[in-house]
UniProtKB/TrEMBL annotation:
Full protein name: HNH nuclease domain-containing protein
Pfam families: HNH_5
Residue ranges of every copy of the HNH nuclease domain listed in the record: 81-134
InterPro entries tied to this protein: HNH_5 (IPR029471), HNH_nuc (IPR003615), NA-targeting_endonuclease (IPR052892)
Length: 187
């Protein structure tokens, strides 16, 4: 069962994956401005109202936008780099030989070698197979005569939420995918 909700700001910018309980709290306090998704993620039932004889009920949508402005501009926040997200961004393709590999057969490779001060960042990391990574060694692609078949880039907010690899509902995946920037490798 999918038990997390995509929380957005009022403008539709992804903020976080939140638990069902956190989402219910936002509904109960009146903080949900709008919601999206095909069907409710869950329906929670509470106690009975004695005066009306009706049981309380909250339908939780898989995507909710909260009232109020975000305290920071999340488009200025660079998503954290992990090996799993990097491999998904690069579609499990070696940046040097262009072959597709399983997770276990790929490595995070520094374009500008770490030994020369190359940072662990989205724009300096690519996926590489062990053979290509060893062949390139502590050289730049130009020095090794191994041009990149694709360029590294920083994923957008929407891409980052897809790259996290959560088991998400199809309607939430489609909602995020429709907002991917042109040229995204995730399309």
């Amino acid at each position: 069962m999918h038990s997390h909700v995509l929380q957005l700001d009022i403008q539709g910018t992804p903020q976080a994956w939140i638990s069902l309980e956190q989402a219910v709290l936002h509904y109960a306090t009146g903080n949900v401005a709008w919601e999206d998704g095909a069907l409710p993620l869950a329906t929670l039932r509470g106690g009975f109202n004695v005066a009306r004889g009706v049981q309380s009920r909250i339908d939780v949508a898989p995507i909710i936008a909260l009232r109020g402005a975000s305290k920071i501009n999340l488009f200025d926040v660079v998503p954290g780099v992990t090996k799993a997200k990097l491999l998904r961004r690069d579609r499990h393709t070696c940046a040097y030989c262009a072959q597709v590999f399983a997770d276990r057969d790929l490595q995070c490779e520094h374009v500008m070698p770490e030994s020369r001060g190359g940072p662990w960042s989205w724009t300096n990391l690519v996926s590489a197979c062990a053979v290509c990574n060893n062949r390139k060694a502590a050289r730049t692609p130009e020095e090794a005569g191994m041009p990149l078949v694709y360029l590294p880039y920083v994923p957008s907010r929407f891409e980052n939420f897809l790259l996290e690899g959560r088991n998400i509902r199809a309607d939430v995946h489609e909602w995020l995918a429709r907002r991917l920037p042109r040229g995204s490798r995730l399309q």
